[in-house]
Each structure stands twice: as C-alpha cells, then as structure tokens.
Design a protein that fits this description.
Catalyzes the transfer of a phosphate group to glutamate to form L-glutamate 5-phosphate. By secondary structure, the protein is of the alpha/beta class. The protein contains 15 helices and 17 strands.
Length: 388
Amino acid sequence: MSSAASLPPFRIPVWRRAVLKVGSNLLAAEGGGLDDRHAGPLAAFVQHSVDQGREVVLVSSGAVAAGRAVLRQHALKATGGGLAARQALAAMGQVPVLEMWRRLSARPVAQVLLSHDDIRHRRRYLNARATLRELLALDVLAVVNENDTVAVDELKLGDNDNLAAIVASLIEADVLLIASDIDALYTGDPRIDAAATPIRQVSQVTPEIMAMAGGSGSVVGTGGMRTKLKAAVTAAGRGIPTALFDGRSAATVAALGHGELHGTWFHATAEQRLHARKHWLRHLPAVAGGIRIDEGARHALSDRRASLLPGGIVQVDGEFRRGDMVAVYTADGLLLGQGLCQYGAAEVRCLAGQHSRDIERVLGYSHGTEVIHRDDLVVLDRLLAGAW
C-alpha cells in the first residue's frame, strides 16, 4: 500500500474563506478525554491563514469524548445509553473542547451551536450566518458544533462532516478542509486491502467512488470515509471544493498552509456554485408586497452587484418579516429582482432614505448595514445575462 505522501502534492487554488473540520479521532486521548497534540498544528495553520488575510471557521468534534472524561474525573456514573446519554456527554464536553481551542488560539474564541431549525428556517438561517460573519469580521475564531443537547434523531444535522459542508455553504466558503485520521481517499479500505492506493483528485463522486468508502474507523467517531464523501458531494453541489488530508501529520498540515495538499482534492466548479445559489434565490417564492428603490440603487444592484442599502429605498409595499423573500422594484414598478430581507416591513419603512450608519439610531438596534445583502439578492436582468 502506498500513501498520499508518495503522490505529488496538489496545488490548491487560492482561497479567501474556509471551513476546517477536525474529527474526534484527532482529538480523543487514549483512555478518553482530549489530546491536543494534533490540534496544535491545526491551530497554527488557522493562525497562519489569518495572518495571510484569510478567514477560517472551525467545526470541531470531540465533545462526547471529552464528556466521558468529565464523568470519570468526577466519579459520576453514566445513566445508560441512547440519545439522551450522548446529549448529556456532549453538554459536559463542549466546555473542555472550547477551552482546548481557546488555549491553542492566539485570537478570541467563540462557540456557535447550530441546530436543524437554524438551517431550515430562513430567519434563523440569516441570524446564524450574520453571527458567523460578524465573528469573522471581529477576527474571532468561531468553533461550530451541532446543538446535540436539544436535537432529536429525526431533526439532527448528522455527523460533523455533514455539518461542516452545511456551514461551508452557510458562510459562502471557498473550500472545505477535512482533517482526518486517514491521509486520502483510497481505491479500497487500506486497513484491510494491501493493494489499495491513494487517489489524488476526484472530479465527481460517483457510485463507484462511493463504493470505495468504508465505515467509521473508531468508536469515538460518528462517521467514516462515506460521510466525508457525502460531505464533499454536499459542498460540490454549492460549488465548494473539498480537501481531505491527514490531520495527524504536522508536515501535511504545514504544507497545506503553503497551498500544497498531500491528500485528496474533490473538485467543484464556479458554475456549480453560481447555478445552485441562483436557482435557490430565483425560485424561492416572494411574499406579497415588496420594496421600491430609486435610480441610484437600481444601478448599484444591476451594474455593481451591490447590496441594497436603506438610502436607496423610496417605498415599502405590503407586509413581510425579517428573513422573508421580498421582491425589489424600480420606483415606477418594474420588477428588478428579489432577495432575503434583513429587516421586516415596518423596520424598512422607518429606514427608507436613511444612511446605513443611522440604522441603530433609528431602530435602537441593527441586523447589519444592508437591507438585502448582495449574496442574498438575485437581479433578474443579470440572471438573464448569465451573471448575478
């Protein structure tokens, strides 16, 4: 069996924003608890990326393993198995996980717990994304995990590979980085197949590629290669490529910081990202009513792909709530496009014609400087021209 280290490194395209997923197998200590020997180089990679002007959001496993250690440390007896027990362990382990990353990070650290409802409901989706964007703007390391303590089986986001792909889509990441305890995708399970060889690039995850995957390699993990392939499929569907690499190798992690991947690269195209986002925004039904804008705002939206700011709004028709899909019209009633609104109709009426810096003064609070962010807006004339 050859290893990914024997392959020529893949040169990663330049990226600005990434999601880094770190699995339980990299953080769990022998006998339980957490071990930061692999987390240290990964934290250094994050800081190196930030120093280069990039942004990284961390999706970290390890809470359940850390929770088991808390049980032993305080001589507490587990009440049993099942979902409730796992949720209790996750609740106890979240603090040690966060504390580990805080200790290893040169920047402030914040915990973000996401649930199924945060992703499925538009207003909560906007809130989650706004929080993550604000943390990035503040140069804070966001450590994301699923809110296991309140999730039920039928409403779980699933394993953290899937969660990382969802977060990558949520923040419009350029790449998904999966740090694993295996160095690449192989033609077979390298633990049992001596002839298995690493695959440097995957243009598309086909049924044949999926058949190469095995199950979870450890009792502390919830996924395996199959969950990583599914995450790569999810990310690719939003135009986000995925890098799979050995998070146990400090040399591999250091090389990643210089744009060299010793692992497997799952391709995705800009066209995929454009199509997925455009299709979703274009076909999400708008509520009744809408926002009318002046000529300056029309040019900004159509020609510069700018966000809709309150200063360009001249009229608000009908009623809508924060997070609703709202139609945008020119002042004379021509439909220009539609987008997810950061404010409700009553709020937008108060903000119409105001400067963005006055939002908090007018409302007493702020959800951001944009009424509709450019990433949440599809402009119909640009859509018909094949761009947005």
